[in-house]
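Minutes, project check-in

Agenda point 3 was the complex the collaborators sent over. CS summarized: three entities, 877 residues total, and the question is how they sit relative to each other. Sequences were read into the notes so everyone works from the same version.
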Amino acid sequence: MVQEQAQQKLSIQFEDIAQQNESYIVGMWTFLVTEIMFFGGLFATYLVYRVANQEVFWEAHRHLSIPLGFFNTCVLLTSSLTMALTVHYSQRGLRKQQLLWLLVTMALACTFLVVKGFEYHHKFVEGLIPGANFRFEPAEHMRVAQLFFSLYFAMTGLHALHVIIGVLVMTILAVLIAIKHPSVQDFIPIELTGLYWHFVDIVWIFLFPLLYLIPR
Amino acid sequence: MSVAVAKHGEVKHNYLNAGDTVLSWLLTTDHKRIAVLYLVSVTLFFAVGGLLALLIRLELLTPQGDLMTSENYNRVFTMHGVVMIFLFLIPAIPAVLGNFLVPLMVGARDLAFPRLNLASWYVYMAGGLIATWAMVNGGVDTGWTFYPPYSSSYSTSQVTLTIIGAFLIGFSSIFTGINFIVTIHKMRAPGLTWFRLPLFIWAHYATSVIIVLGTPVVAITLLLVAVERVFRLGIFDPALGGDPILFQHLFWFYSHPAVYIMILPAMGVISEVVACFSRKRVFGYHFVAFSSVAIAVIGFLVWGHHMFTTGQSVYAGMVFSLLSFLVAVPSAVKVFNWTATMYKGHIEFRAPMLYVMGFLGLFVIGGLTGLFLASLATDIHLQDTYFVVAHFHYIMVGGTIFGYLAGLHFWWPKMTGRMYPEGIAKLAALIIFAGFNLTFLPQFVLGYLGMPRRYHWYPEEWQMLHVMSSAGAALLGIGYILPVFYLLWSLRNGALAGPNPWGATGLEWKTDSPPITHNFEETPIVTEEPYAYENHHQQEEVASGTGASTAEA
Amino acid sequence: MTNGHDTHSHIVPIKVYLLVYVALLVLLVATVGAAYLPGHHTLLNNVIALTIAVIKAVLVILYFMHVRYSTRLTWLWASAGFFWLLIMFILTLGDYFTRHWVPVLGWE
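CS then shared the predicted structure for the full assembly.
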C-alpha cells in the first residue's frame, strides 16, 4: 500500500495524500447526503399519499410484477457485491481483476435497466402511463391510481437515471483502467464510484418493498 | 484590474495579476478569482432585482393600478423575489466573501475541490441566464413560492423555465456547500482547532450544513411541479387527487432554512467586524459559535409557521409555533453577545462598523416582528399582509445586505489591495440606513391596517404611507449606487492597503493584500485564540494612529 | 476490532463481502415472504417490510460502503442525512395524522 500511495498525484491545495483521500471521501459522503434528501422529498410525497390512499394504492400496485421486481433487486444487490469486489482489487492494485469485476457490475446494471425497460413497456401496453390515455378499472379509483403511477414513474425513473449515470461513469473508468491512465492509478476514483453505486442500491432497497409489496 | 505596487516600486506578484486574459479568469480554479467572478455576477443580478423593486414602488405611488396591468404587476413582484432570493441573497455572502475568505481564514492554499468551485459558478450562471431568459420571454407570475395548483395547472407564464433556473442555482449552492464543509473539516492549518476558528467560519459551516440538507428537497419538489406542468399529472393538484399543502411542506422544508442560509453568513461577518472595530474579543465566543449550529438545526423544525392559515392541522401549527419561538433564542444570544462585545470597547466608527450597528438594530426589529408572526392567533390577522413583507425585508435587507456591505467594505482592502474612500462610504451607509427604514417602517403599519401583499390597487387613505415607502426606496437606490462608483474608483485611486490596514486578527490579514495565488508563502501555524485583540496593541496603534487611508496616499 | 487502522488502506476481506451479500439475499426473500403472510396485517406488514429494508441499508452502509472502518466524520455525515430525513417525515406526517383531530366546519 505504501509504495502505491506514493505514486498518487497530490493536488496543490492538499498537504499530503491522507488528507487528500479523506477529503474526497468526506466530500462524496456529503454529496450522498444531498442525494438522500433529494430522494427523501419523493419518499415523503409517496408516504403521505400512501397513508391517505392505502386501499387504492394496493389495488394499483397489483399491476406491478413482483417476480420482475424481485429479480431486479437480486441483480442490483449482486452488482453491489461485484462493485465492492472491484474496490477490493483496486485497493490491492490488481488491475485485471479490478477491470473484470467492474465490467461485471456494468453488465448487471444494464440488465437492471433492460428489465426496467420491459416493465415500463408493459405499463405502456396496459395504458398505465399517467396522462390523457391513462385507463384504470374501477373508474372511480382512476384519479388516485394515476397518482400512484405518477409517483411510481417519478421514483423509479429518477432511480433509473441514477443507474444510467452510474453506468456512464463506470464506462469512463473502465476505459481509463484499460489504457492504464494515471488518474486511475490509485483506488480513490473507484472507491467514490463504489460509494455512489451502493447508494443507488440502497434507494432500490427501499423502493422495492414500498412500491411492489403493498399489503392490503 | 489594478496592480498593487510595493513601496519600492516593484510590481508584487498576486492573484489579480497572475493572468490577465479573459480565459485566465473564465478557466481559473483560484477561489479568490472565482469569488471575483461571483462578485460581478451577483452585483449584476442585484441591479436587475433592484430595478424590478423600483418598478413595484413606482406602481404603488398611486392607489390606482395605472402604471401596469395586474398581470404585469404579478410578474414584476415575482421576478423581483426570484432574482433577489435565488440569484442574490443566497449566493451573495457565501459565494463572494465566503469563497474568498474560507481558505484564507483556515490557512489553506485553496478550497478542497477547486474545479467543483468553478463548476458552481458556471452552473449558477447557467441558472441565472435561464431565469433571465424566462423573464425576457414573458416572465413568471406565480410568486417566488411557485404554489400549485396555480403554478402547475393554471399559470400561462414561464413557470417551467424559471423552475429549471432555480433548480440549477440550487445545485451551484450545493457545490459551494460541499466545498466549504470538506475544507473546514479537513484543511485547517496546524494548530487551528475548532475553537480557534473565526466565527465567520462557524457561520459558514452552519450555512453549508443547511445548504446540503435542505436544497435537494426544494430541487426535487420544484422538479415535481415542472413534471406535473409538462406532463399534466396530478401530484399536487387536488383536482387530480393530490394535496397542494404537501407542496408547501416540502417547499418550506427548504425555504425556511434558506432564510438562515441568507442570514447566518451575515452574522459571521458581523462577528468579525464587531470584534475588530471594538478592539475586543467576541464576548462569549463559544455561545456565538454554537448558536450558529443551533440555528442551523432548529431552523429545520419551524417551517410550518408559513402555513398557519392553510389546512394544516391545528396541532402541527402549535408545535411549529413553539419551535419558532425556540429559534429566536440562539439569534438573541448572538445579538446580546455582539452588544456585550462593544461594551467598553474602543469603538471605531468606520463604514463597516456603521453597517454592523445598522444590522444590530434592524435585525432586532426583524426578529421581534417574526415572533408576532410565529404566534398562531396574531398570524391570522397578519398573514399575507405588508407586515410580513416588512418583516422579511428587515431580515433580508437589514440583515443580509447590511452584513454583505459591511463585509465587502471590511475585506475590500484584502481583495483589491486598495482602501475605499472612508468619508463617502460612511455617507452611503447612512443613506442606506435612512432609506431602508423609510421604505419598510411604513409597511409594518400598512400591514397592520390590512394591506395585503401582492396587490397593486389599494384604498386611498393608505397612499401617504405608500408614498413614504416609495420615497425611501428611491433613497435606498441612491445608497446602493454610491458604492458601485467609489469602489470602482478605489481600484485605481484608493490608498494602498498593506497586509493589515485594520490591525485585525485572523490568518487572512497575515498575508499580502491582494493575496498571492496560493494564499500563503508557507503554511501558517496558529498558536493563539481568535480575536486576541489585547495582544495586538502595537499593531493597533500603527493602524489606527495614522489611519490607513492616509498612509500612502 | 478492525478500527484504528488507517481508514484508506483498510481492505475488507472478500469473505466479509460474501457474508453480507448472503445476508442481503436472505433478507430480501424474507421481505417478499412477509408480504404473502395470510390475513390483513397492514400495519404489521409495513413495519416488517420497512425494518428489513433498514437492516439491509445499514448492512450496505457499514460494510460495502466501509463506514464501519471509517472515521467519526464519515459516521457523522452518513447519519446526518438519515436523521434529517426523519425530521422531514415526522413533522410532515405529524400534520397529516393530526389534521382531523379537531372537527372543522365544512370538512367531512
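Noted in discussion: Confidence is low (pLDDT under 50) at residues 1-8 of chain C.
Follow-up: revisit at the next meeting once the mutant set is ready.
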